[in-house]
Amino acid sequence: MREEKNKEMMIRLFRVSKHYGKKSALIDLTVDVAADDFVFVTGPSGAGKSTMIKLLYMGEAISSGSILVDGVNLARVSRKQVPLLRRKFGIIFQDFKLIPTRTVFDNVALVLEVAGVRSREIQTRVMEVLDQVGIADRSGEYPQILSGGEQQRVAVARAIIANPKIIVADEPTGSLDPDSAARIFSLLQTAHAKGAAVIIATHDRELIASHDGRVIRLEDGRIAKSSSEPDMLQ
Amino acid sequence: MMPLPVQRAVRDYRNHKYLHGLCALTIALSVFIVSAFSLFYLNATEVLDAWRKGIRIIAYLSAETTDADRKTLTAATAQLEGVAHVAFVSRDAAFAELRLKLGDQTSLLAGLSDNPLPDALEIRLSDDYHNLEDIDKLADRIRSLEYVDDVEYAQKWLHRFKGVYNLFQITGFVLVAVFFMATLMITANTIRLIMYARRQEIEIMRIVGADDVFIKYPLYIQSVVLGFVGAAAGLACLFLAYILTLANVGSSSVVSMFDIRFIPPALVLGIIVCSMIIGWLGCWFSIRKFLRF
């Protein structure tokens, strides 16, 4: 317990609720994520996994409660500060969210362009990270001609290139074959090893069971189980 | 190397060629219509001004006016404000001129036993003396002078002319304002269409932490450049149409009687700047909707 308290907390959700009209997506959720955590958020469809992820990067506003990200209370983040908050994150989606009119290189470079990095440095860093995810040879191609696994590797490259403090992934392997899924997961583990807190929303029990990490199971917007061992989910 | 926002603007042109082309075409068409109207308006105004400058007041002298009286009257008239030149037209000279103007129909004068025309003073006005009320006052003053029987200066025509001229001016301003607004709305909507096509891209930019400035700058650059390109294309088309029209107008045509000029460089510059401002405004109107976090 003492050890838990001394850990640096990257994300703190305190009694967070999110309602869409009369429907509640999250109810009274309290979760802490440490800076070195690797967290799986799981649960059935509609449990609130994606909603929880969106609330973290202010993709949605909370209805009640409070969220702290890297010591910043999101309730006090102004509209102008939202981009700065989002730069703390690397975000991965099931549908990749790549810009179809930009090449692989340009999609990944976007994160650095946004952060104001110089063109020459962008060139080097993008090629490095594309090499790391094993897709450097396709840097000049457009996303739509890549396979799902390759597109997700581009998305991972985009998520990790700026060395974010937090990586959130919403069903990152949901539409991939097992080999591609394993490769993506391995890349996320590497990013975690380099110091990023990783939160993965997934309903893939096999993925959770075969990897180490803390598990939070949501059901109907509430925490059903929270553990540091995957087998506790069974 | 180009600055990053410019590089991104160029890349966006390439990625959305059709929409950007459509936007430039829309602006070009609007600029063409407004410029064509300006061309017509400026030349028509010049023609009307030339006619107005040609206004003369004819003061008919009474029959008992002696040469000495006429000289005194001529000197007094020349002193009046707005009078540029006074010329004496003798009744004989006037009759000879009438005969000349009648040409083949001189026989109409055959029944006259005597010259019915009076001596007259032909009074030309200063170039800057165009105000109709002033001309009326000047005519009244001349009429009140001794030895002046009557004064003629196409009063009715001048009043009608003033009405037409005023209507022409008002119509000009209203049309330019309407076209300005129409161009602005069309441009704003076309840019909105471009943004709508790019909404996914803008959403992704926002997710990876792009701020308003990062998203806006290239859009503003694109819109201002589209305004410039559209205006340049519209004006180039108008110039081409102007050259072709002049080349195809025969010497017998009414148009050939006037010195038709293209719109002056200052106005060309003004139209281009206005078009760029319209591009900027169109972008500003459209952007507000898409940049809400």
Structural features, described:
The complex is a heterodimer of chains A (234) and B (293). By secondary structure, chain A is an alpha/beta fold. In chain A, 33% of the residues lie in helices and 27% in strands. Chain A has eight helices and ten strands. The radius of gyration of chain A is 17 Å and the shape is globular. In chain B, helix 1 crosses helix 8, helix 2 packs antiparallel against helix 6 and helix 2 packs across helix 8. Chain B is an alpha+beta fold. The radius of gyration of chain B is 31 Å and the shape is elongated. Helix content of chain B is 69%, strand content 8%. At the A-B interface, helix 3 and helix 4 of A face helix 1 and helix 7 of B.
What's a quick, concise take on this entry?
The complex is a heterodimer of chains A (234) and B (293). With 234 residues, chain A is α/β, with parallel strands linked by helices.
Biggest sheet layout of chain B: 4 strands, antiparallel
> Proportion of β residues of chain A?
25-35%
**Unreliable runs of chain A:** 229-234
Low-confidence stretches of chain B: none
Number of helical segments with 4 or more residues of chain A: 8
Feature tags:
heterodimer; A: 234 residues; alpha/beta; 33% helix; 27% strand; globular; disordered C terminus; B: alpha+beta; Alpha-Beta Plaits; 2 domains; 4-stranded antiparallel sheet; 9 helices
Layout of SSEs?
The complex is a heterodimer of chains A (234) and B (293).
Chain A: H1 2-6, E1 9-20, E2 23-34, E3 38-42, H2 49-56, E4 64-69, E5 72-73, H3 82-86, E6 89-93, H4 104-114, H5 119-132, H6 148-160, E7 166-170, H7 178-193, E8 197-201, H8 205-209, E9 214-219, E10 222-227
Parallel strand pairs in A: 3-8, 3-9, 6-7, 7-8
Antiparallel strand pairs in A: 1-2, 1-4, 4-5, 9-10
Chain B: H1 4-15, H2 17-53, E1 56-61, H3 67-78, E2 83-89, H4 91-102, E3 120-125, H5 132-144, E4 148-152, H6 155-197, H7 199-207, H8 212-248, H9 265-290
Antiparallel strand pairs in B: 1-3, 1-4, 2-3
